[in-house]
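check this:
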Amino acid sequence: MSAAEPLVRGVSDTARWVAYFRARESRRPDALFRDTYAEKLAGERGFEIARTLPDGDKHEWAWVARTYLFDKFVSKAIENGADLVLNLAAGLDARPYRMPLSHVLQWVEVDLPEIIAYKQDVLGDERLACRLERRALDLSDRTLRRKLFDEVSSRGRRVIVMSEGLLIYFSPEEVASLAQDLASTPNFESWIIDLASPGQLKLMQQTTGRQLSEAGAAFKFAPAEGANFFTQCGWTAEDVRGLLKTAAELKRAPDELLALLPEPKRIQGNYPWTGVCLLKRVDAV
């Protein structure tokens, strides 16, 4: 990293930041998951981002809870018969290496060319737990992503889609377009997403969000209607889990935030909330 080069060069560098938190959790004797690849994937830049960004080394509980919930939802979907996992904006996720998976399970990762190349370089010789394929693709290109979705649908009878840390960088119109494309694809049964409230978005924009915006990775999506936003796009919320509540149950939540519990049944716009949602396609319910 040169002195003239910005610390966060684009959205791909946020994946190194997320890997840093997975590495931190994996070092604990009571770790909720073990990601032995996270430290290598984060690299020097991932650790430097965490040390340098405003609040960049804080809120580990949220990143850990998010990883934990995605793990649980993906595992449950596979146990219930999903035969293909489509990971959109996979970043530096190492689940095909670290999770106990069937060797016949198909797993397709999609991300920008630079992150795919970096990941292949770091993990190329590591042992896989399933059948993994990586695809370099800009998900904002609707024609190309529809082509990919149709191809994936032809290969899996019951597809679980996941998009961890993706939607917050999209506008509501872009999210709706993606959601409609996924819902209109045969065999795409469920979709795991993470979501923030408008109140949480404001807090994020005031801290790390400023520098990320300068790097072209601005936080944008936080619908006031929460998971109900996706109803108009062909999806219904089957399970919604708040990160703070989950972290408290797992003994990871900081004491100063416990006053926010219990969460209200209906999250108001200014309430600082983040969570993970399992969506089901309406005609698959």
Notes: The first helix runs from residue 11 to 26. Strands lie at 84-88, 106-111, 131-136, 159-163, 188-196, 235-242, 274-281.
